[in-house]
Structure to design on (450 residues):
């Protein structure tokens, strides 16, 4: 390792990927500094996965309370306090921020607070401080963006949604991706009159089409108003509220508008282009299979490379990079069969190929689907129904994809991801005994092919 530099690795960005890469590099013997301008933990800990899941728990408790009546419970005097949820959420996030700092310090990583700028292939400036390293790692993540629309500043993004002072009476969520459906579910579950507006005709582009179709039906029966094939055209103040004008000419009155219309790589002001780093049109850093940019000493992982924007992916990329650079063990990540969950109401779990992808790659496929009322609903009276789907290669019998809409879908599909990575076949699924009575057992009892 080059002693002529201050460090072997300087990481810019203290999110999941940057922290993991820095910690693992230090474990491999590297001298590491991590620069972060904000709170440690990045999007996931501060304005993403963790607080969103906490909000989702809170919103889902409303339906749990309603379900309890069918099981003999008398529920009276129940009320929800938004301020309490915010305070408890903030306390947990602060705890996690501290854990991230302690973990880095225990690993021997120097934490530098400030905004970094890349000066050249080996040099970083933080305020008046200039530091050098054999390798630089950009792990600055992404940021939520608003559409180019009149009055867009009157709306919020998911980043601000975690810090609303007063829970609105009415809300419009714009966007049909996973962030949009999750926040529509959260607001609706907390008693907000919620509209989900999407420019397309189906939710969750990029996921199996059945998931978007089924989720739309479930959201509607939960009370979310769905506006498909509509675009926002302008936002104005109207008394104490807001008025959203639509592309169709209609208007909707509301108290809050949240844009879930996309994220962009966080590269502004980093000096990357001046340092010779090639960027994609959307600002994503272009890297090879080993996360090396067009400048050999500058690397990038996580949302800033815009491959798969998931926390476990950034973690895996960080570990692979540390092995490559400091253990002389070139490592790359296999992006196949990455499981994912969407914490809408109900949840979605998905792993492997969609039906469309499977037909394109494998030709003939067999589809197994089921939709049913879960046992809990027989007493609770809930209209929510579970959906499950297996996509199977006809020639080999290999299970190519598993998809689910229903309670704890992520917990169930996590286990199926292991099976898919092991190349499990439908016959092996069929030979596996189910745990009865559970929802999960349906994945090993599917027999009727479409």
């Amino acid at each position: 390792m080059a002693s002529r530099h201050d460090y072997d690795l300087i990481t810019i960005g203290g999110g999941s990927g940057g922290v993991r890469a820095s910690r693992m590099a230090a474990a491999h013997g590297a001298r590491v500094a991590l620069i972060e301008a904000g709170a440690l933990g990045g999007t996931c800990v501060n304005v993403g996965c963790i607080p969103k899941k906490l909000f989702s728990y809170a919103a889902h408790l409303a339906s749990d309370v309603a379900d309890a009546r069918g099981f003999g419970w008398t529920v009276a005097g129940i009320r929800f306090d938004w301020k309490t949820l915010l305070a408890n959420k903030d306390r947990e996030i602060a705890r996690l921020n501290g854990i991230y700092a302690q973990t880095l310090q225990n690993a021997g990583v120097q934490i530098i607070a400030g905004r970094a700028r890349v000066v050249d292939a080996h040099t970083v400036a933080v305020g008046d401080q200039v530091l050098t390293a054999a390798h630089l790692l950009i792990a600055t993540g992404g940021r939520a963006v608003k559409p180019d629309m009149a009055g867009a500043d009157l709306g919020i993004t998911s980043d601000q949604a975690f810090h609303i002072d007063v829970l609105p009476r009415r809300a419009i969520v714009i966007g049909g991706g996973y962030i949009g459906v999750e926040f529509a579910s959260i607001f609706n579950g907390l008693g907000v009159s919620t509209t989900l507006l999407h420019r397309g005709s189906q939710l969750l582009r990029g996921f199996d089409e059945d998931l978007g179709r089924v989720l739309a039906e479930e959201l509607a029966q939960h009370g979310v108003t769905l506006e498909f094939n509509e675009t926002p055209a302008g936002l104005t103040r109207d008394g104490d509220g807001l008025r959203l004008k639509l592309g169709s000419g209609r208007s909707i009155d509301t108290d809050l508008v949240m844009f879930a219309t996309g994220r962009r790589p966080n590269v502004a002001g980093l000096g990357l282009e001046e340092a010779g780093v090639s960027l994609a049109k959307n600002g994503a850093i272009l890297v090879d299979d080993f996360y090396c940019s067009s400048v050999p000493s500058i690397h990038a992982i996580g949302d800033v490379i815009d491959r798969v924007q998931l926390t476990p992916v950034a973690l895996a990329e960080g570990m692979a990079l540390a092995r490559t650079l400091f253990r002389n063990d070139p490592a790359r990540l296999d992006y196949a069969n990455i499981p994912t969950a969407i914490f809408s109401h109900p949840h979605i779990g998905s792993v492997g190929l969609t039906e469309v992808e499977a037909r394109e790659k494998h030709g003939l496929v067999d589809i197994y689907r089921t939709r049913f009322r879960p046992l809990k609903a027989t007493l609770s009276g809930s209209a929510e129904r579970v959906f499950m789907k297996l996509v199977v290669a006809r020639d080999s019998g290999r299970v190519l994809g598993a998809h689910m809409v229903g309670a704890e879908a992520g917990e169930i599909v996590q286990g199926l991801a292991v099976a898919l990575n092991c190349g499990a076949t439908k016959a092996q699924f069929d030979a596996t005994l189910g745990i009865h009575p559970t929802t999960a057992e349906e994945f090993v009892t599917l027999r009727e092919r479409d």
Remarks:
- The two ends are 59 Å apart (CA to CA).
- Residues 82-107 form the longest helix (26 residues).
